[in-house]
Amino acid sequence: MTAMPTDAPSPLDVEAIRADFPCLHQQVHGKPLVYLDNAASSQTPQAVLDALTHYYTHDRANVHRGVHELSQRASAAYDGARSRIQAFLNAEREEECVYVRGTTEAINLVAQSWGPANVGPGDEIVITQLEHHANIVPWQLLCQRTGATLRHIPIDAAGALRMDVAAEVIGPRCKLVAVAHVSNALGTINPVAEIVRLAHAQGALVLVDGAQATPHLPVDVQALGCDFYAFSGHKVCGPTGIGALWGRHHLLEAMPPWQGGGDMISEVRLDVSTYQPPPLRFEAGTHHIAGVIGLGAALDYLMDLGMDRIAAYEHDLFTYATARLATVERIRPVGTAAHKAGVFSFLVDGAHPTDVGTLLDSQGIAVRTGHHCAQPVMTFYGVSATARASFAFYNTRDEVDRFVEALHKVLSWL
Ligand code: 7TS
Question: Which residue of 140, 218, 344, 386 is most buried, as measured by CB atoms within 10 A?
């Protein structure tokens, strides 16, 4: 037996982990479920369900408003989740972590608050060709509003960013680069630290869309050097409708509010108001309290497992899946970059992805089909849709085998 290098993460006990996820244990169309749509939304462990139930059955009250016991307990649980986000992202301060509805809202917050205060006619915002619509449309809206220009870093045939032209695209007029850490349609892991270096050299900030990286990789915003980082709870085993925006403290401090209401103010008069410092300045109104508490529990769950162990397990599983899928005839993978995480997008010769997805579903295999809210990627490959299998740390080699078997069956019907 080969000895494990001492710095290698110890392996995950995936069978024990699977027992934590009630939704995985069911039959779909008479077949055991194989859930491979994790890039759309992950499943929820019992620890998160318990945290939600505990709030609703014991502590249900509004936060920051009551001297009464329930409100105090709810506030403590709600405020406590911020330190989980700080730890998960290795942020310097918990005040840098803003509760939002998800990645989409986080990006819109920056575009609508930081944007108009810092971007004007002739300035440039840079995105990439493999962004999710959530990291395209808010910047189009900002450019339309301010007279700035939207530019993009193109991709190559494998679905990797053309870093050979990135330095030219990120020019002296660039104010912000908005880039996905991991592409949702292709799985490409982007060289974010290198992009940060290019952007900072031009005096531009970098916003990282971490929706697809946070479920798979250890994220360290200080090591990445970025300025904003966004992610969604429902992709990291947490509830839907909650996520976080991390931003450097001095940037958040200088940003104006984007929504007004309760909880974000310091003092309100009839003619004018003053505002709380960040993060409360950006959290107007009653938030998704249960969601915040559930997100804290989800991040605790992932951190207890260890994101380095999750990444190592998934890397091994994905290498196995890619090799097995390469043996299936009539399958064309879309996105074959050298550095990928957990996403296998593919086309089947002579069949529409929707039909492939429907027939796989009849075999108990859940994949997503469509443009994956990344239409510019589809346009680049000259297709309108792909089928996409996306993996998580609770998937197994046995499930990969069942997926491949089901694909063979589906191909024999098409
Ligand atoms: N950015 C990326 C890279 C994403 O993958 C997604 C969601 C979002 C932003 C938006 O996240 P939300 O939580 O605010 O909706 N991606 C997907 C997907 O690939 N399939 O369904 C949702």
Answer: 386
Q: Is the CB of 211 under 6 A from ligand 1?
A: yes
Strand partners for 366: 35
Q: Which CATH number fits domain 14-32+306-413: 3.30.70.3270, 1.20.1740.10, 3.30.450.20, 3.90.1150.10?
A: 3.90.1150.10
Catalytic member of 97, 143, 174, 373: 373
Q: Residue 63 gets which letter from DSSP?
A: S
Measured distance CA(387)–CA(357) in Å, rounded? 7
Structural tokens at position 36: 């491979």
Structural domain boundaries in the chain = 14-32+306-413, 49-304
Going from the C-alpha of 26 to that of each of 22, 31, 240, 290, the distances in angstroms are 8, 8, 21, 26
| Nearest residue (CA) to ligand 1, atom 6 | 211
Query: Is 373 among the residues known to form the active site?
Result: yes
Distance in Å from the first CA to the final CA of the chain: 45
397 C-alpha vs ligand 1 centroid, how far in Å?
Answer: 26
The pLDDT value given to residue 190: 98
Q: What is the tens place of the pLDDT at every residue in 174-218?
A: 999 999 999 999 999 999 999 999 999 999 999 999 999 999 999
- pTM over 0.90? The answer is yes
